[in-house]
Amino acid sequence: MTSSRVDVAALPQSFGAATDLAGALTENLGRVIRGKAEPIRLAVTALLSGHHLLLEDVPGVGKTLLAKALARSLGGSFGRIQGTPDLLPAELTGVSVFRKASEDWEFRPGPLFANVVLVDEINRATPRTQSALLEAMAERQVTVDGTSWDLPDPFFVVATQNPVEHVGTFPLVEGQRDRFGLVVEIGHPSKAAERDLLLGAGGAEALQGLRPVCEPLALAAAVATIRTVYCAPAIADYIVDLVAGTRHHGEVVLGASPRASLSLLHAAKAGATMAGRQFVVPDDVRALAVPALAHRLMLRGGSDLATASGIVSRIVDTLPVPRG
Amino acid sequence: MLRKANAPRPPEDSVALRVVVAIAVIAATTATLAQGVGGSGLRVAATVGIAFGFAFSHWARHRDGYLLKVGLALGVVIAFASFLDAVLGASTGSLAEIQIPLAELFLWVQLLHALDVPARRDLLFSLLSSLVLMAVAGVLSISGGLAVYLVVWGVATASSLVLAYRSEIGDLPPLVDVHGRLAEQRSTVTRPLIGAVALVLLVATAVFLVVPAAGAGRAVAFPAQLPSRVPVPDQGGLANPSLGADDPSGPGAGPGQQRASFGYFGFSQTMDTSLRGRPDDTLVMRVKAARPDFWRGQTFDLWDGRVWEQSDHEPATRRGSSPIELRGSVEDRAILDRSASVELVQTVYVERPGPNLIFAAASPQSLYMSDNAVFELNDGTVRTGVELSRGAVYSVVSRRPAVTESILRAAGEGRVARPGTVDRNVADRYTQLPEVPERVARLARDVTASSLTTYDKVRALEAWMGANTTYTLDIPPLPAGADAVEQYLFVDKQGFCEQIGTALVVMLRSLGVPARLAVGYTPGERNPFTGLFEVRADDAHAWAEVYFPGVGWQAFDPTAAVPLAGEPFSSSAGTGLVSFLAGRLPSLPAQAPEVLAGLGAALAITLAGAGAVRRRVAKRRALAARTWPDLFLERLEVAGAERGRPRRASESAIRYSEALSTSVLPDRRVADLGHIIETAAFGPEGVEDRERRLAESVLHEAASASPTAGREP
């Protein structure tokens, strides 16, 4: 049994380094994805919070490009999985192969064994494959033929899905969506950004020239550092109130889970770090409530992200911020 | 550490705080000045200078003012030098003479300090030194007039402490404010203020009633002062300007030499009991003493049936300088030398020009006075060589044997005074009588027939007079040729102290008991607030002194209740408070129903008040539980709301302050306030006081620069 786990507590923890890393990542991604500061910021936030990211939008707006740019910026190993109906779980996790030379089974790791894993079109994979993937995301380990293998650290999954297409897709159920820390919609570019794209700025060409801004270990250290960002009791109360608000909303059948509260807190800590602050303020929570909570809500008339986002927005806009 | 402690503090911007501190300091200063400290120059400098100093400090609060500091240091050195000069130049070297220069030094320091009070800490220091000044004034004060200053000072001090505290917790009411808000804020200052004042009054009253009365004995220095040094015309003789033309010993009955309304004819070299008319209630002197006593001026030993006279016409000169040691009479000295005695220190503050007599409890031993010679008669009473005008102060240490009833009863029993002894000399001198009417002598014998001891004889005579004569000031004139005692005892059957005292002395002498008539003042009413006995002209009194062999002279008086020396007289500072107040309130019985109703109402109000206080305490606790960021955000909200941009409930302080900074409070620095608030609220370590104050001053300035008036809401 091999272990690529890193004892993050032993890593040099520097708050300034975490902030610098966030800045470098944001800048790097900005070279590729033009005019999309907010999705980039959210993507970096998700990465630094230690949770996985789901990019959900119509085709052609740069979901895959963003995921690739993210992977490339991080250095480390990169795995890519294309979601198709015939994709099998073993093709993700890897298989055990019998070697004649050693007369033994040898484990051949699949694409999940990477620091950054891009899962394209996750909703095209079958529910069986999806749950194998999501289990690996939650457990950070895979089990093949009775043997458990740890996934590397950091382990960061960027998945994309197209919410509009329904034919030939298997939408993620709420429990599976809950595994993603943040869900980000990219949206169409502005006219100016699209014009830049046509004129050759950014895009795939820029991706080729992208250099990694950090080592995987540095990212692991940054994530560990960010978890130590101070959260005042009043802020914790505020998060609890926000999440409770989704549970008691009339249109919501199933509100956000305690895991949602935790991942909102981690995201808020990452947000604070990116602002160069070592403590969480209400604005950190406010800015991340929709991407962190909306995708987890099960609504009465069928869950769609736009409606859920609206509900979370309204809760954020009516709940008084703590005064300290 | 040191550097931090000495670091310049941020200037205090609150005008209100500065003004109340200035009021407290000026109240303390004028209170001290009112006690006769300082010349006219210091008076003007202190009153005008301190007000100017505070105004100047406020104006220059942002400046470094190194030059000013150097100047002030120089000023303090000069003030100290002049203090040293005054002390070294003091004539007698007594501590009492340092008192005034020291108070002046305090005043100068206070004045100089007022010029450099930029920060709150300096203001509070100024407040503290005003407390010292107030204490100085309290020590020097002898009248209730200090109360006015004390009230003003107390209110101003309490206000400044409340303001400073509120400023400290970030709840100082904004000065630029709309009326409604300001009124509410003001009540948050007034209510705790009233509470604090009430509490202080309550505690002070309780302490006042418990602590023992100080009297003059505990003073380090015995005050002595003469405002002017005018020698009396006849050195060693008696002069009483208050008697004017009536003074038999005076220079003559010139026209316009009217007797003052408070002059008492007993303070003269002779006392004619046929004279009538009593002084009014003019305040003639204040006496600081630990217990009441007769303030004796002189005694008379020669009686001719109508007039008392003194046999000693050649008083001995006693020289010395603070204190002047006195000898006392031969008999007093003999007794004090061998028996236990009690001491009483009294300081007399003369309020009206009167006789040049030293009034003191018997028997004076040493005299603190700003003159180096006095004249002592052989009965132990003292005359001064200078006039005692208003403002004159002298202190006397008196001693007399500790006596009780049983000692007096046992005195002289079974002793025969041999010729040449002290007792015999006293008996010879103080039992001489002219022809005593037979029925007077018989009455004395009859009344005392069953009395075995001198003490019981005195008591029996007193009792008889109390039962068979009445005390009145309004008696008919003494017919020509009539014996004053006979007239009083058998004809008029009424009289006042001269008659009663004289009758007692004459009857005792007829029985062979040495006795004499003493004149002076009864203790007077003790003012519990100043702790001084206020002696008025109509407290002038004559009483009998009876000699007990081996014990000495003892005063007796059926009309004035004065404890025997040696009897325990316990008193607290507040002794007599109720009777003092009762004497100044309308008589109660006539208004008993109203009084009862008033008491009931007071009880109801007290109960209601207790409830209110409890609610108030709960509210204050809730307020105290509020944090600085919470309170400061509220101020920001108020400032924004008044200018038409209230905060939305879900809007964070950061966003709100940014919004304000670009709209209704156009000040770049306002944008940072949200960060400071949220760092204080949510940061692991909060923010430093310095940053809080900076934030407060930024908001204050931005609010001042952008008034609410003229803006559409």
TrEMBL record, chain A:
Domain (AAA+ ATPase) ranges: 49-190
GO molecular function per UniProt: ATP binding; ATP hydrolysis activity
TM segment ranges: none
Entries under SMART domains matching the protein: AAA
Domain of life: Bacteria
Protein name per the record: FIG022979: MoxR-like ATPases
From TrEMBL, chain B:
Residue span, Transglutaminase-like domain: 489-560
Pfam families (UniProt xref): TgpA_N, Transglut_core
Keyword Cell wall biogenesis/degradation among record annotations: no
Coiled-coil stretches: none
Gene3D superfamilies, alphabetized: 3.10.620.30
Region named Disordered: 233-258
Keyword tags: Membrane, Transmembrane, Transmembrane helix
Full protein name: Transglutaminase-like domain-containing protein
Species whose genome carries this gene: uncultured Acidimicrobiales bacterium
